Amino acid sequence: MTTIAPDLAERFRTDGFAFPVNALTPAEAGQALAECHTYLRTVSAAGGALARYATFPKIHLVSTWADRIVHHPAILDAAEALLGPDLLVWSTNLFVRPAHSGSSLAWHQDAVYLGLNGFQQHAARVWVALTDTTVANGTMRYARGSHLRGTLPHQFSGSELEDIMRGEEITVDIDEAAAVDVVLKAGECSVHHLAMAHCSGPNHTADGRFNLAIDYISPQVSPTEGEDSALLVRGTDTGAFLPETRPTADFDRAALQQFYSAVARRQKRIDQVVLNRDSQDRGEADRTQDPA
């Protein structure tokens, strides 16, 4: 049994995050990084939906290195300490900040895009470092306690390409003094609440930064609308989600069929979530302009 810090769940509840959490060994992290590079070369050469969805949201359904990480006992023990004994993987996301990249992400919350009921108490994102994460290579920053404010309004901060590439930004003030840099060694991970406000900076180093994010949920979570699927990784009960199965080999036929179905289903649902949110935001803006 993995040793989990006794205050992990308390820090998660009060701060909205906790790190560092021991996950992969240095050797496991090195192997996963090498396999990740091979995976990226393979999907890039394949093109099509594999390339389009190379970094989200179902990497674990076609790649055994990602499947191995989402089932890693140390990571599951941490997730169980936060969410209970029944665990599903809803999504995997690969975050790569290339060497000497000027890219960055504005302050934002993951929850506003996901369309999940019950995420407040029954979901967590685990951010696994496949390389060291530092301020110099653009690691994440958390705004301590921001998850307690609920989901916040977002909009693009400007119309320039750079603004759009940075993504939608929270439109209320973030206390920079409460910001915490997520500094991890390769193999360690952090956990954060889906309503945690966070951002990341450019990579000023000669090496790429690689992180695999895993969204764990319990069966109490359900889609706000439409069908969705998830992979049971510990315990029992898939709740409101269609069940997924583990890949037996990288990119085998059954895995690919499941992957294509799952990402199409997810994309359709998220597109509707975003459309509904945009319509709601426009309605609220209209009401603000017309008090009558």
UniProtKB/TrEMBL annotation:
One of its GO terms (molecular function) is iron ion binding. Transmembrane segments: none annotated. It comes from the Bacteria. Pfam families: PhyH. The keyword Ligase does not apply. The keyword Oxidoreductase applies. Keywords: Dioxygenase, Oxidoreductase. InterPro entries: Phytyl_CoA_dOase-like (IPR008775). This is Ectoine hydroxylase-related dioxygenase (Phytanoyl-CoA dioxygenase family). It comes from Streptomyces caelestis.
